[in-house]
Design goal:
By secondary structure, the protein is of the alpha+beta class. The protein has helices at residues 11-21, 29-36, 44-56, 100-113, 129-133; strands at 60-63, 68-71, 82-88, 94-97, 120-126. The chain is built from 5 helices and 5 strands. Helix 1 packs across helix 3 (44-56). The longest helix is centred in the C-terminal third of the chain and has 14 residues, at 100-113.
Amino acid sequence: MSAHAHPDLTRNQTLVFGALAGSVGPLSAYSILDRLRGQGFRAPLQVYRALDKLIELGLVHRLESINAFVACRQPECETHGSIAFAICDRCGSVSEFADDGVTRRLEGWAKAEGFDLNKTTIELRGRCRACRVA
């Protein structure tokens, strides 16, 4: 999904999404702020407000384990019950994927436990193929 699919995005939201979409890897809020200072960004709150809305719209994901953000790279990601990220500890690359089998197992567990599941995000940490062979 692209920011262009949401014409109601503010200028700041569009700029923050653009910074993430154009980045090779995940960015912290402060890295985004540094990239956008020339565009009039002065305070972290401007970035965090934009990120909150972009996350709400499903355009951006927060990677909890590294306190960073990535643009959504999975088409129709909001239709999946769970989303997973493989994060390389060496180069910082992030791969986003969904697996319906994993989703079914997690939903089955939640149902059996009486747990009301709203969202599942899985973060795998290790080394990507390129870093493993390097």
